[in-house]
Amino acid sequence: MTDDLGFVHRFLPSEDAASRDTLLALHGTGGDENDLVSLGQTIAPGAAILSPRGNVLENGAPRFFKRLAEGVFDPREVRSRAEELARFIQAATTRYALDPERVFALGYSNGANAASTVMFIQPGLIKGAILLRPMLVYEPEKSADLSGSSVFISAGRMDPIVPTRSVERLAELFQSARAKVTLKWQMVGHNLVPSEVSEAAAWLALQRGTVSASL
After folding, report:
1. Strand 48-52, strand 9-12: pairing
2. In angstroms, rounded to a whole number, what is the distance separating the alpha carbons of residues 22 and 9?
3. Confidence at residue 214, expressed as pLDDT on a 0 to 100 scale
4. Residue 213 scores a pLDDT above 60
5. Phi, psi dihedrals of residue 122, rounded to the nearest 5°
């Protein structure tokens, strides 16, 4: 673990010499740089893993940005923290000699929201993202151009934290920005289930070009 790039983080280089892919793993509230490493290795076998710990503490629980109350955010603070995360991604890309065209994100809850915001404010920095239980936390003043980028959104129909309309609006914003959007609804709450992990892995394999079949 190291924190000299602005975030405490873990970096696991690829064990596949032919792979140029990096998976940016962004944990949910209360997680850390170890939280999504195993899941990331399952979803993106052979990819390098870059996993930062959120710099914000909420009652001792790491997050990537503050919330004023459950589901209530300050857009300026969200953007500022997303810019901070974007700078980390850029610095880590240089430090670890990563291919900037092959960075994908895997985010859960707060981490998914951080990933989506980075994509809106820094188009192209993240090639594609798996957003697990995201919600809309930042709406850009003008539509970004995310042509060539893709997102996989997996949401829970019975999620007590994330409103259905918030997920739908997030998907609409990505579509307006010309990103390719795959939205999957799970008959669960905020927890993850094995079937969506398999769906996410299959989706990412297509984006990475490691399989030829379509979902």
Report:
1. antiparallel
2. 14
3. 41
4. no
5. -135, 70
Tokens 């914003």 map to which residue? 173
By the 10 Å C-beta count (0-12 exposed, 13-18 middle, 19+ buried), 166 is classed as middle
Taking the C-alpha atoms of residue 125 and residue 15, their distance in angstroms, rounded to an integer, is 23
**pLDDT band for position 1 (50/70/90)?**
low
How far apart (Å, rounded) are the C-alpha atoms in residues 1 and 34? 10
pLDDT tens-digit readout, 85-132: 999 999 999 999 999 999 999 999 999 999 999 999 999 999 999 999
CA 13 to chain centre: 19
Which domains are present in the chain? 9-208 (3.40.50.1820)
pLDDT tens-digit series, residues 33-67:
999 999 999 999 999 999 999 999 999 999 999 98
pTM of this prediction exceeds 0.90:
yes
Annotated catalytic sites, by residue? Answer: 109, 159, 190
